[in-house]
Amino acid sequence: MKVPAWNLLVVLCALALPAKVWARTTCDPRSDHAYQFSSPRVVTHELALETGANGSASFLWPGSSMADSALLFVSLSAAPGAPVEVTVAAPGIAIAQSLGSGSTGRRALNVSDLRGVPAGTRVTLSSPQASLVGPLATLASFHNQLPLHEAVLVLAPHPDDAEIAAFGLYADRHSTVLTVTAGNAGAPIYCDVAPEPEAHYRLKGELRVIDSVTVPWQGGVPVGRAFNLGYFDGCLRAMHNAIDTPVNELFVTNDDVLPYRRLNQGRLLPVESRKATWRHLVMDLKSVLSRTRPAIVVTPDPRTDDHPDHQLTTVALAEALAQTRQSPHILLYTNHADGDRYPYGAPGEALPPPPWCGPAPLTAASFYAHPLSVGLQRRKLMALESMHDLRLPPSAQHDFAATVDPRCTRPATRLPGDNFLVRGVRAHEVFLVLDRAGLLTLVSQRPF
């Protein structure tokens, strides 16, 4: 889509972002992906690989009946540039998952669906694009015992982030979905309908706020437990840089969250005039923590998720949590990684953990893969399709203007391959698990 000239305006929020945060971090496909888990409930097994034809390998499954999640660490060798798909198979089970193109080196495969396989069963690994390199693989089994029957709080930096990351986890539970921003930025997908920037982005923000508080009902979350704070998309860094200075929207001269917060039907927080400042955001999060008292908080991983609003959402959570005595389980998700290519592969596949090629292993207490039945995957797809920003805009399907505004071009009539509606529904939703102390330490070290 050609971007209209008015979308290139220099604005305060954008100026507050260092140039490097706009660039998507990518890993060298030949680098090892290293993870380190500290929970005593993580059990590891060293497995002897038997090599087979065409680069395949097999091993004897040691059994993991008490685990709810499992990762298999293997070494791969692939030709440069080739997308890599690995199939893990046991009698009656075939788990397909995709890795980054040209994946060579140590990788983690999500084999959680093997956890009920009897010990001693032979499991095979194969890939049309890569060879499995022996002689050993490592199996890590995770016994998380998460209190999923208790209160769950899902933090979404933007409308649709909660559904992309955790619809299956929050559905049909005592969940609260809290969205931080109105989503009033990004591509000008309604240019034909509202060509003026101020009108366009106010319309877009209002639509996405309404999405954020109504779509969770498809997962059984009533509007009273879905709330949008109404802060401004793309502006959390500017707020964080000057904690008491109100920040304007990107395309509208407004520093008050009320135009968006008033669209909430629930009253999780007061719906009143409130300046867009970092201090107010942290206070709001503290109030929500106090009101909901979650046993589990779901939030972006600021190390692996490239988007600055995602990183700063979790920084704000940590600051709010530090002002309480609460100690919830923290589940970290990643929606934007490896140049927005992750998650790799096709819908319905198993989902490996996010890629990591930092100088030290990516640390967490544990790993959790939340399974989605076929029926729940279908519900998640419909929830994503209900989000205005993920589906085709009206002007991609029909000409609504008698004359096309010269600032606008008609959107593509097919969704791009990296759209989350195309690739976001998987057999699992995956999270790195921390406790309160782990989150506060992570944020204090700022390894992102």
Explain what this protein looks like in three dimensions.
23% of the residues lie in helices and 24% in strands. Strands 13-12-11-14-15-18-17 form a seven-stranded mixed β-sheet, sandwiched between helices. Strands 3-4-9-6-7 form a five-stranded antiparallel β-sheet, with no helix packed on it. It has a four-stranded antiparallel β-sheet with strand order 2-10-5-8, with no helix packed on it. The chain has two domains: 103 residues, Sandwich (Jelly Rolls), CATH 2.60.120; 299 residues, 3-Layer(aba) Sandwich (Rossmann fold). The chain has 448 residues and is an alpha/beta fold. The chain is built from eleven helices and 18 strands. The protein starts with 11 loop residues before the first helix and ends with a helix.
Summarize this structure briefly.
The chain has 448 residues and is an alpha/beta fold.
Task: Please give the alpha-carbon distance between the first and last residues.
Answer: 31 Å
* C-alpha-based Rg, rounded: 22 Å
Class per helix and strand makeup? alpha/beta
Annotated CATH architecture of the largest domain: 3-Layer(aba) Sandwich
* Fraction of residues in helix: 10-25%
